[in-house]
Design a protein that fits this description.
With 314 residues, the protein is of the alpha/beta class. It is built from 14 helices and 11 strands.
Length: 314
Amino acid sequence: MNRICELFGIRYPIIQGGMVWCSGWRLASAVSQAGGLGLLGAGSMHPETLVEHIRKMKAATDRPWGVNVPLMYPEIDRLMDILIREEVKIVFTSAGSPKKFTPMLHEAGVTVAHVVSSSKFARKCEEAGVDAIVAEGFEAGGHNGREETTTLTLIPQVRRATGLPVVAAGGIGSGEAMLAAMALGAEGVQIGTLFALSAESSASEAFKQRCLALDEGGTMLCLKKLSPTRLVQNGLFDKVAEAEARGANSEELRDILGKAASKRGIFEGDTEQGELEIGQIASSVDAIRPAGDIVRQLVEDFRKAQKDVAAIDF
C-alpha cells in the first residue's frame, strides 16, 4: 500500500494545502470526503476560530483530516494545546523547526508532517522524529524557502536524503504532474492552488477571478528580506518590487505591506493593494470547480497518464 495513504488513512495520496484565508472547514471536509486529506489552515485563524472550524470538521466528515500550523504563529503554545485538547489526529507544521513540538504531539497520538524546502532540512526533520516530509518547490504560492529550488530538482534530492514518506508540493496541478512527482520519489502530493480556486475555498470571488485570469509569469517571488513569498503581480507587488530594487530595509517593506496584507487581498478581495498569494500553476486553471471534482479529476488523469507512459518505448 502507498505509505502516505497508509499513514493518514486516506484513499488517495492527495493532500489539500492548509492555506491562509482559503482553507476552512468547508474546503477541508470536501477534500476528505472525496478521499484525499483536507487540512484546516490555522495560520489565518484566531484560536477561537480554529476551535470552531475543528468542531465543524468533526460534524462534516468522519474521514481523516488535519490542521496546518505555521510554527511562527504568534500564540503557538496555545494553539498546540487546542490541537491536543480537541483531539486533532493529523498536524502539518511549517515555517520553523518541528523539534520542540513533535514529541508533544506524538505523545497525544498525533501524526506529524513538516514542510521543507531543502534536503538539509529534510534530514533535520527526520532527526526530530516527524512521520512524513512535504518537500515544496518554489513554484508554490505564498511563503517559500530561500533556496529557490524547483520541485523537479528538490524531490529526488529529498528522496535520497531521508527514508521517510515524501509528499511533493509546488507547481502540481494535474494527474500528470502527480505521476511525475511520484516518478521522482514522492509518495503523495500536496496541492494548494487548485483548491484555493475551488468552490469551497473561503477566498473571495474577486481573488479567485483575478487568479483565473493569470498568464505564465503572472506571479513572482518577492519580499526576500522578510520571508520569500510568491505573489500575483499587482499594485502592491509593484510597490514592493520598486522598494526592493532600491535596497529598502525590512522595516520599510513591512510599512509598504501594511496590516493584514494577505487578508486584504485573499479574503477581502482587494486585488490591487492586497497581497495575492498563489502558485505558478494558477495560469493553467480556467474554472472554479468543486473540490471533490478536482480530486476525482486528478485521480482519473493520473491513471490515464500511467497507461500513456507505460506505452512509451524507444
